[in-house]
Prior knowledge:
The chain is built from 9 helices and 4 strands; from the N terminus they run H-H-H-H-H-H-E-H-E-E-H-E-H. By secondary structure, it is mostly helical. The chain is elongated.
Amino acid sequence: MDEAALYHLALLKVPAVGHSTLKTLISYCGSAEAVFRTPVGKLLRIPGVGETIARGIHQTDPQRVASEEVAKAEKAQVRILTHTSADYPSRLKQIADAPALLYAKGTAELSPPRSVGIVGTRKATDYGRQVTQRIVQELAAYQPLVVSGLAYGIDIEAHRAALPV
């Protein structure tokens, strides 16, 4: 079990802790695990951390709260990438509100030299699907990583078009 992922997940289960607050807590405490060992008084001095968050952290049992999700990820052969892990995409690290956790399955290179974001409607028309296929096929020579929100419609069509035939 990846201990860093477990503590990151546990922090996200604390009421009022989102990705931005999680990153702030870690930057002040040194690691997600250290956040749970930090006294309430010190937590309260961290910008954006109030009584609800500080008390919530000390009332959370990281092992109990997050181990089930870590076990499910391991069973499905899904990696949980924290924003502090070496595998976390380098371009995302440069974005202030990037997610603190990513789930990855497979062996994709997440920091490729080229990537393209393709996002579109969930209710794709035939024309929209054809255009998406054409765009992806024309970009194939550059071997970009196709990034999307994995929604139905154009997003899925982009990934299908990117798969080798």
